[in-house]
Amino acid sequence: MVLEANECDFVFEPQITEEHVETQYGNMHCIMTGTRKANRPVILTFHDIGLNHKSCFETLFNHMDMQEITRQLPVCHVEAPGQHVGAKTLPNAYTYPSMDQLSEALPAVLSHFGIHSVIGLGVGAGAYILARFALNHPDLVDGLVLININPNSEGLMHTVANKITEWTHTLPDQVIAHLFGKHEIQTNHDLIATYRHHISVTMNQSNVSQFFRSYNNRNTLEVERPVPGGNINVRTLKCATLLVVGDNSPAVEVVVDCNAKLNPTNTTLLKMADCGGLPQVDQPAKVIEALKYFIQGMGYMSSASMTRLRSRTTSSSSFLSFDDEKRGRTRHNTDVSMESISNSNVDQIISKSTEVAC
C-alpha cells in the first residue's frame, strides 16, 4: 500500500532575515519571513504601543491556520525605533519621530527589501501608521487590515487627562489601559498579568514612553467618505480595507467612527463578539479566517476555505453582532454564510459595504 503525504503534514519553515534598516527617522528593526514572489504583495505588520512584533503578532502567525497564508505571501514585521527586544535606551540627542514620520520611514524599509507592494496589518498605533502610509503612498499598498485604529487626534480634554495619568499611573498601567478595556482588565487576570510583565520587563521603558508620547500627539487622519455625485477627489483610502475590533475593546467607538469616514465600496468592518483589546491574540483563528477571506477577495488566495465567519451586507445603523442573533433579536439585514461563498463571487461580495460579525 502506498501512502501519499498531504502537504499540510509538513512543517512550514520559511526563510527568516532579521535586520536593522536605516531610515531618515532612525533605525527600524525588521524581520523578513518567506521568499518574495513576482506580482505578489508582502504582508507588512506594525505593532501597537508597548508591544513588538513578537508580543503583538506571534500568537497569530504561529497558529497552524496561518500557514495557508504565509505559504503564499511573505511577511515583513516592522518595529518602531527602540521597541525591539533588547533595545538600548535611545540617545538623548535623538528626537523620536512623529506618527507621520514613522509612516514616511516605511518606503525606505520597502526599498531595502525590494518590496513593491504590501498588504498592511497594523494594530493600534501601527494601524494608524499604516493608514497614513497608504494615504500618502497608495501605489505601494494593495490592502489594509487595521485592528483598533483610532483616526482621531487627542482633543484638549484627552491631552489634559493624559498628563494627569502620566503623573498618577505607572507606564505599564497606562499601556495596559490603552490596549485593553476595563472589563478585560478586571476579569482576564492571567492575560493582563502576562502583558504587564512583558511591558515592565521585556520592553525598554524610556523608549516605550517616547513611542507612546508620539502616538498621543498624532494628527487626525483627514479622510472623508465619498458621496455619490460629490467630489471625486476626496482624501480617502483607495485600497481594500478591513477594520477589526473586539466588542470589549476600548477602541470600539473610534473604529466604528473610522468606518463611517471611509469609502463603503472597499471597506469592511469586523466586530468580534466576546473579544477584548487584542483580537489577534484573543481569537487568532477567527482573525485568520477573516484574513483569508480578505486576501482571497483581492485575488491572491483562490483556494482558501471559509468556514467560521458569517458575513452580513448591512448598513452601519442596522448592524447587530452574532450574539444578538443567538438571543433571538430581530435582524434587519441579510445573512450570507461564508461556507456558501464560492471562489468566483468572493471578490464581488468583498467589494460591497459590509460589516462582519463572528
Automatic annotation (TrEMBL):
Keyword Membrane: no
One Pfam family recorded for the sequence: Ndr
The entry's keywords: Cytoplasm, Developmental protein, Differentiation, Neurogenesis, Wnt signaling pathway
Broad class of where this protein is predominantly found: cytoplasm
Region described as Disordered: 317-340
Subcellular location per the Swiss-Prot or TrEMBL entry: Cytoplasm
The keyword Transport belongs to this UniProt entry's keyword annotation: no
A single cellular component GO annotation: cytoplasm
Gene Ontology BP annotations: cell differentiation; nervous system development; Wnt signaling pathway
Family membership noted in the UniProt record: Belongs to the NDRG family.
Functional summary from the UniProt entry: Contributes to the regulation of the Wnt signaling pathway. Down-regulates CTNNB1-mediated transcriptional activation of target genes. May be involved in neuron differentiation.
PANTHER family: N-MYC DOWNSTREAM REGULATED
Protein name: Protein NDRG2
Organism of provenance: Anabas testudineus
Organismal lineage: Eukaryota, Metazoa, Chordata, Craniata, Vertebrata
